[in-house]
Amino acid sequence: MPVPLIIDTDTAQDDCVALLAGLLDPRADLRAITMVAGNVGFEAQVRNAFMTLNAAGRLGEVPIHLGCTRPLVRPWVSAEDVHGDGAGGLDMDFDGCEPEREHAVDALVRLAAERPGELSIVAIGPLTNIAMAAVRDPEFAANVGRLYIMGGSNNGRGNITAAAEFNFYVDPEAAKAVFAAGFDITVVPWAPLTLDQAVFDQTALDEIAALGTPLAEFFTRVCAATLEFDRSVGIDGTTHPDSLTAALLLHPDLVRRSARYNVDVETGSELTRGYAAMSWGVHGLPDNATVVEDVDAAGFHAYIKALLATPTQPARPFR
Ligand SMILES: [Ca+2]
Fold this sequence. Notes:
There is one protein chain. By secondary structure, the chain is α/β, with parallel strands linked by helices. The protein is built from 13 helices and eleven strands. It has helices at residues 14-24, 42-55, 80-83, 104-114, 128-136, 140-143, 166-170, 172-179, 190-197, 202-209, 214-232, 241-250, 297-309; strands at residues 3-9, 28-35, 64-66, 120-123, 147-150, 185-188, 199-200, 238-239, 255-265, 276-279, 289-295. Residues 9-10, 15, 38-39, 124-125, 242 line the site of calcium ion (CA). This is Purine nucleosidase. It is an enzyme of class 3 (hydrolase). Its EC number is 3.2.2.1.
């Protein structure tokens, strides 16, 4: 049976690839896309989500709900230096592309309550919407089946600062609240997991480009800006933590090793704002999350390649 899920996203680059997994993988039943402030300007993120629906040939088929346009207590911090507009300058005709009227937080609460314990959430942006939903409905955490989070580093390096990964850095209060809320959480960390196992080097990118499908072309365009940035910081290729998170929910057999941890997020410090303290069971703290430690990297690469080989018919031409 397909997995009913929502993807909560700050849509830019690899978020688009994660959405493609939700839209095209037969194991996925994507019920909604919820948008949260993160990577790039909110309007650009919404456009990127509509363009991803179009690339998948599914424009108009999955509702997009607009969520929180800023973190809980802090001003928004962008990653536009990393992502540009988040889609490599890709554009299309957006006439008639309307998001839903219902707020993303209301949609999350409603859809989880409709099927208690069945709906999964893949959260690949700052956790503002998820924290808000947990405050809005005290039953929300219990109603959500599984919550897969891309964020933090497992006692490894950050990306926006030495200590912090971007999603937790942008809204550390939300991340802290989510880990305390009682969800069934699986964490896909930035380091070391993503850096070791979810980077597509030039050879992999060339193989994808050679697929010649509309999706391969979309992927190549969308990843271009991040590739440039990643190279400038010494990463040999594009990083795919968000699509890895979606892939692991849909294909748990790709997980080679995971363990229970106590995860908490730093909110008081300026130096280590958003740092994820992942305690591995020897500090007397109750575990609250499963942290993925090792995956079948070749299997993940093959999965993305097969996804991008899918023939699709975008209703609107890209320019
Ligand atoms: Ca993201």
